[in-house]
Amino acid sequence: MSTLAALALSVSLTASLAPDVLSPRVAALVAAVEPARLEATVARLVSFGTRNTLSDATSATRGIGAARRWLASEAAALAAAPGSRLQPFDDRFTTAPGPRIPRPVELWNVGVLLPGTDPARSQEAIVLTGHYDSRASDVMNATGDAPGADDDGSGVAMILELARVMARDRPAVSVYFVAVAGEEQGLFGSTHLARRLVAEGVHVLAMASVDTVGNVVGQDGVRDDVAVRLFSEGVSTVETEAARKLREAVGGENDGLAREWARYVARVGTRYVDNLDFWVMLRRDRLARGSDHMSFSREGVGAIRVTEAHEHYDRQHQDPRVVAGRAYGDDLAHYDAAYGAKVGRGLLAAVATLAAAPAPVHDVVLGGAVSPDSRLRWTLPGDPRVAGVVLYRRRADSVTWQRATLHPRGDALVVRDLVPDSYVFAVATVDAEGNESLPAYPSRLE
User: Which domain holds residue 426?
Assistant: First the structure.
């Protein structure tokens, strides 16, 4: 490599860690998110009256059938737009009867796929979902109004808008933008989608369920159009015995795939979006509740839930009504498109960065026990775009990364005078444009 090329690489890599230096590509994508489009999509979904999974599937104007056919037409339009690389994605199946499904019901997951451009990583992907079904107070009420503006018209609107913005992008790995069905009846759509992708050999690098991201006035009286929560499990739902032993040895309860993906979204999202505060929540989801990321967690995927910071329970799972002057119902009037756009921009920044990043390192080995120095080695991927590595570290009493240092492309590091007993490490790859992989943790000790 020439001296000039090495200097340019050093500058670009350093810039990738600096919060005030942005990738022009990612910044342009982020700037393209339009609140008006989000509002229009939520309004259209609300117009179907109810999107209950058990509602009318044949009407042209009301019920789940009308909603999914409209979503399919939107997906087709996104794919047909000039210069678009998107492909319509359709996932239909019939679910068996269950506690909230009294009869066999055909369900559709519908959306678009943005194919990756790296042939060596053709089976790798990022998945974004929002659920388009809605519910009233009684989850089995298939005829009453259930507008579902926030839960989860807001999430569906966001993934459609992010798909539109990324339509011409050329990421290394594929990105799925899918409106899933049957969430309120038991995560049926996302469960089928997760299992389908596994069966097709797709390795999902990261997944986000965008669920309820449009309300800024909480039941607690707080108005907050800045904060958003990222729920993530710390220990994998399908942890192996070997992984359990390693976790117990190094104290990795806070370092599962989902937790690191949540940190990544927070780190990159706030780099590109001013006045946005991601809360990395140290639990899988809200108490006694869940969302579609859990379906992917069960398949070993690092999956998170993206949701507003302050929920208003009068506007969730409620029949629209007024009782003693108190209004209930998840209507369009309480959806804040500006807030939704802000959250969408932050998520988009993280997705666009990760999708373009080089392949991660693997087989990270941590050594240095009974020593004043920490020793790490790993196997570099065959990806020629790897220009360097980033070493993340934090003291073992912290839950967030405290320092990131850039190093030339290589497969080993010795960190002098940092006792490994007291620190946690992870290693990410980075390309010449500053796109970083997810940090990889030690998988072995020596």
Answer: 3-18+359-445
